Amino acid sequence: MQIPPAVSAHLSKINFATLCLAAILFLFPWSNVSCNGKEMGSQSGFQAIYAGFSKSGESKQMDDQMRAMGGPSGAEAQGEKLDDDMGYALVTLLALLAVLAGAALSGMLLFKKMPPAVPPAMLAAAALVLLLFQALVGFPIDRSINRAMDKGKQSAKNDPFGGQMAGSIILKTERTGWYYLELLVLAVPAGLLIYSMIPDRKPLATSPATSGAVILPPAGVMPPAATTPLTSGGTMPPAASVPAPVIPPPPPPLI
Fold first, then answer.
1. How confident is the model at residue 76 (pLDDT cuts 50, 70, 90)?
2. Least confident of 117-126, 194-203, 220-229
3. What are the two backbone dihedrals, phi and then psi, of residue 72, each rounded to the nearest 5 degrees?
4. Residue 163 · residue 157 · CB < 8 Å
5. What average pLDDT does the segment 148-152 reach?
6. Over the range 60-85, which residues count as b (16 or more CB within 10 Å of their CB) and which as e?
7. Which residues 6+ apart lie within 8 Å of 229 measured at CB?
8. Residue-by-residue DSSP string for 148-216
9. Composition of the chain by helix, strand, coil, percent to 5
10. How confident is the model at residue 75, as a pLDDT?
11. H or E element that contains 43
């Protein structure tokens, strides 16, 4: 299908704007971590690549109180533990590289006044697929929280008293609206690319004899002359006979 002219004329601008916005959204929190309903911290898309973690204000306040009492804070130790056990999100790294490459390429096409090309939209589609795959297999912070919960259940079996306290701690991760906004932004150029690849479906031509339509000649054009109709046998009628001219004999020669 053809992209509407109003959109096609600004295709380079749309690709450049959406890919730049997608790159910026990597800096916003994509995952929130909560403990018994209280927010512990968050992790941005960029932090997921190198196993970073940002603590919430409440978590930092608890750390300060425990540190003032002269002991290590549980929230601080747990935060360091998350950083150590989290791992790296290589799929998210590939998605970020695809977004940055698409933004750079679309910027070159835009500022050099070149016609819009397909590669930026293809890179946006690739980044969208990679982020969906990352969410399907789980972010590293999800796996780290699951391991922490499994260790709490295991300690409950070995130490009933300590396990009861560990079992009362419920850690949970959830995606934020910034992550879904990232997917929506990447879906704009990817959707335009898919729409342009759908083939057009032209209507079948109908014969005037079957449709009953009468085709009139264009203005200023004379209709063709009428032809001689066929006989019932399907043959042309005999042509009218014309008598041969009579040529008089030559006069006798003079002696």
1. very low
2. 220-229
3. -70, 140
4. yes
5. 70
6. bebbeebeeeeeebebbebbeebeeb
7. none
8. HHHHHHHHHHH-HHHHHHHHT--EEEEE-HHHHHHHHHHHHHHHHHHHHHSPP-PPPP--HHHH---PP
9. 55, 10, 35
10. 44
11. strand 38-44
Return all residues near 1 (Cβ < 8 A) that are at least 6 apart.
195, 196, 198, 199, 200
Residue 141 has pLDDT above 80, yes or no: yes
Locate tokens 């940002």: which residue?
A: 54
At 39, is the secondary structure helix, strand, or coil? strand
Question: Using CA atoms, how far apart are residues 166 and 41, in angstroms rounded to an integer?
Answer: 19
Gap between the Cα atoms of 184 and 218, Å rounded:
52
| 24 pLDDT more than 60 | yes
Chain position carrying tokens 């001219």: 245
Q: Specify whether the CB–CB gap between 45 and 96 falls below 8 A.
A: yes
Length reported for the chain:
255
Q: From CA 130, how far away is CA 134, in angstroms rounded?
A: 6
Answer yes or no: are the C-beta atoms of 92 and 48 closer than 8 Å: yes
With beta carbons less than 8 A apart as the criterion, state whether 31 and 141 touch. Answer: yes
Structural tokens at position 87: 């791992």
- Residue 44, pLDDT > 60, answer yes
- Encoded tokens for 100: 């940055």
